[in-house]
Amino acid sequence: MTSTNDIRRSFLDYFGANGHTIVPSAPLVPHNDPTLMFVNAGMVPFKNVFTGLEKRPFSRATSSQKSVRAGGKHNDLDNVGYTARHHTFFEMLGNFSFGDYFKEQAITHAWTLLTKEWGLPPEKLTATVYHTDDEAFDLWKKIAGLPEQRIIRIPTKDNFWAMGDSGPCGPCSEIFYDHGDHIWGGPPGSPEEDGDRFVEIWNLVFMQYEQEANEIVGELPKPSIDTGMGLERIAAVLQGVHDNYDTDTFKALIEESGALTKTATDGEFKASHRVIADHLRSTSFLIADGVLPANEGRGYVLRRIMRRAMRHAHIIGAKEPLMHRLVGSLVSEMGGAYQELVRAQPLIEETLLREETRFRQTLEKGLKLLDEATVDLPEGGTLPGETAFKLYDTYGFPYDLTEDALRSRGLGVDREGFDQAMAEQKAAARAAWKGSGEKASDEIWFDIAETTGSTEFIGYSGTEGEGEVL
Ligand code: ATP
Ligand code: MG
Ligand code: MG
Ligand code: MG
């Protein structure tokens, strides 16, 4: 079996041999980009190179970029544990052309690597193109010999990429692998596309146009290429398993979590073990890159992820803090490729232990309250937003933890009510705030808190009375 570490290497070597400079992953906290919570794609560290603001001594690059999608525009947190293919932390393999090669060579490279180097059967692969992109359609026919019914024209934004309202943009082409008809799901564009049968493995973005205020205003003088392939998804394919969580890296983590808690990993606690393994990776890599749990901003997203994992540790019956005991396995699996993980191991363990010890003190009380509050709710019922807020405020339950806890019971949460309760508490705190005497700076402080809150939902009051109040 080819290990995930070998697959990463093989991808970088392939593009390295084809004139690409191998660039190490950038840290998860974006450099100079306050608009973005975490790096969530391979192209992020190259944004300014694509727009021409920055120069590099090369025009082709390849990387395996650490990525987190647990908030903001790309939020896969809720999928974790429930689909075979989503993580909060994953590695995005990519090849980039900065005004160098374009569509034809990008498709040729992707096809050669997948079917020649790695030997995947062409009949298992399907490509999508943006509905108007005849050029890409024809290239898939010419280069890959794909039959027309396996080149699917998609009219939605899924196949049109843009950096923002202004800047480079262009059509994309996604490559899907068919895991077989024993798995539920349909081809892209079909009503069953959300199933796990056809899994998107690679996205090729053809940066071709210039956009201003959401309007295409012209062609880029030097079109560029940005691609992204999920390492864990291609590892599943190459290791002959359907599910990312059955690949070598995840198996090691899940087995360890099963062994430490003396529970089966494929029975009733299957989803919990997966959530724990996934969240262990995201939290550990975030801490290694300098994020620490906090009640606002990036640190709050980290805390949310940690607490969700810790609740699942509690579900499978862990009598003591669990997460910190799994870090060693993670370091064995991934420390070779990511030295920062090895360096930060003691800090990661300490942080997880402290957080889990504290959270466990309120977890049971909070869950009890949740049970009481839902005992009379019918199947499909909704928990009042105020109760969700109380759980947040008193017991440190992030909103999505409450949502996740109810989901398995077929219950929902009243998000609007929650937001309203939060807003009311903020207003009360604002009124009570005596301030430092410098009104302007106090106003700014609250404004910052509120703008961050509107996109990322910050913790507002110190949940454990630790004076972390904004
Ligand atoms: P999906 O439609 O499956 O959510 P996407 O279109 O949002 O994926 P892209 O933004 O195109 O993903 O990212 C490029 C590649 O990164 C995808 O083709 C996929 O292989 C991988 N990827 C994206 N999101 C995740 C995730 N949450 N976990 C693991 N791999 C991912
Ligand atoms: Mg997605
Ligand atoms: Mg997609
Ligand atoms: Mg995609």
Automatic annotation (TrEMBL):
<dbReference type="GO" id="GO:0000049">
    <property type="term" value="F:tRNA binding"/>
</dbReference>
<keyword id="KW-0963">Cytoplasm</keyword>
<keyword id="KW-0436">Ligase</keyword>
<keyword id="KW-0862">Zinc</keyword>
<keyword id="KW-0479">Metal-binding</keyword>
<keyword id="KW-0030">Aminoacyl-tRNA synthetase</keyword>
<comment type="similarity">
    <text>Belongs to the class-II aminoacyl-tRNA synthetase family.</text>
</comment>
<keyword id="KW-0820">tRNA-binding</keyword>
<dbReference type="GO" id="GO:0002161">
    <property type="term" value="F:aminoacyl-tRNA deacylase activity"/>
</dbReference>
<keyword id="KW-0648">Protein biosynthesis</keyword>
<comment type="function">
    <text>Catalyzes the attachment of alanine to tRNA(Ala) in a two-step reaction: alanine is first activated by ATP to form Ala-AMP and then transferred to the acceptor end of tRNA(Ala). Also edits incorrectly charged Ser-tRNA(Ala) and Gly-tRNA(Ala) via its editing domain.</text>
</comment>
<dbReference type="GO" id="GO:0005829">
    <property type="term" value="C:cytosol"/>
</dbReference>
<dbReference type="GO" id="GO:0006419">
    <property type="term" value="P:alanyl-tRNA aminoacylation"/>
</dbReference>
<protein>
    <recommendedName>
        <fullName>Alanine--tRNA ligase</fullName>
        <ecNumber>6.1.1.7</ecNumber>
    </recommendedName>
</protein>
<keyword id="KW-0067">ATP-binding</keyword>
<dbReference type="GO" id="GO:0004813">
    <property type="term" value="F:alanine-tRNA ligase activity"/>
</dbReference>
<feature type="domain" description="Alanyl-transfer RNA synthetases family profile">
    <location>
        <begin position="2"/>
        <end position="470"/>
    </location>
</feature>
<dbReference type="GO" id="GO:0008270">
    <property type="term" value="F:zinc ion binding"/>
</dbReference>
<keyword id="KW-0547">Nucleotide-binding</keyword>
<dbReference type="GO" id="GO:0045892">
    <property type="term" value="P:negative regulation of DNA-templated transcription"/>
</dbReference>
<dbReference type="GO" id="GO:0005524">
    <property type="term" value="F:ATP binding"/>
</dbReference>
<keyword id="KW-0694">RNA-binding</keyword>
